[in-house]
Amino acid sequence: MKLAFALALAAILYSCSTQTPLPATEAVTEYPEQELFGARISFFTEDRLATVIDAGRVLQYEKQNLIILDSGIVADFFDEAGRKRTRIWADSGTASEATRNLNAFGHVIAVSDSGERLETEILRYDHSIKMIRADGPVKISTPTDTIYGTGFVADRNLKNWTIEQPEGRTFRDRPSHAQPDSTQSDSLAE
């Protein structure tokens, strides 16, 4: 029995010692060109303020044309007249100076000046077409409706939107329809 135990122990030790070591990898770390705390980024379109993004921390990677936003972000979208139309809050995000696109991650809330409120986990803003998109689960609340779904597309003001696979409830008044009188019912039954 001692011999069997010793052979088993020797086999385990031998198998452990003959494992091929993992190849050595060189750690590659890219450092941002800029790191800012409590920063504000402004994007302009034709000399007009289009978007302002405030973030707790901003990391700018110029080679990748990438701005990483974290520690909470707030983004404001402005219309052609310079009025703030939509505000987005998120845990973190990314932006691009070249495209002026914004990706918001975490607990994302977008609220328009007209009262629409969108909630989702990932929201993308495409500046070239001025559209907001969420591919995952969403909830949109308006003064009269609360709708849930998967997939959402809207203009940057959250005025014109579509939601895929909708379900929800409405608080709109249903128009009352006049009930047919009994003579019409009788004539239809004949």
Shape: globular
Proportion of strand residues:
over 45%
- Report, as a whole number of angstroms, the end-to-end distance: 99 Å
| CATH architecture grouping | Sandwich
Instruction: Calculate the mean pLDDT score and round it.
Output: 80
Output the CATH class name. Mainly Beta
**Helix coverage percent:** 10-25%
Radius of gyration: 29 Å
Structural overview:
By secondary structure, the chain is mainly β. Helices cover 13% and strands 53% of the residues. Strands 1, 2, 3, 4, 5, 6, 7, 8, 9, 10 and 11 form an eleven-stranded antiparallel sheet that branches. The chain is globular and about 60 Å long. It has two helices and eleven strands, in the order H-E-E-E-E-E-E-E-E-E-E-E-H. The protein has helices spanning 2-17, 182-189; strands at residues 34-45, 48-61, 66-78, 84-90, 92-95, 102-112, 117-126, 131-141, 145-155, 161-163, 167-170. The protein has one domain: Sandwich (lipopolysaccharide transport protein A fold), CATH 2.60.450.
Which helices and strands appear, and what pairs or packs with what?
Blueprint: H1 2-17, E1 34-45, E2 48-61, E3 66-78, E4 84-90, E5 92-95, E6 102-112, E7 117-126, E8 131-141, E9 145-155, E10 161-163, E11 167-170, H2 182-189
Antiparallel strand pairs: 1-2, 2-3, 3-4, 3-5, 4-6, 5-6, 6-7, 7-8, 8-9, 9-10, 9-11
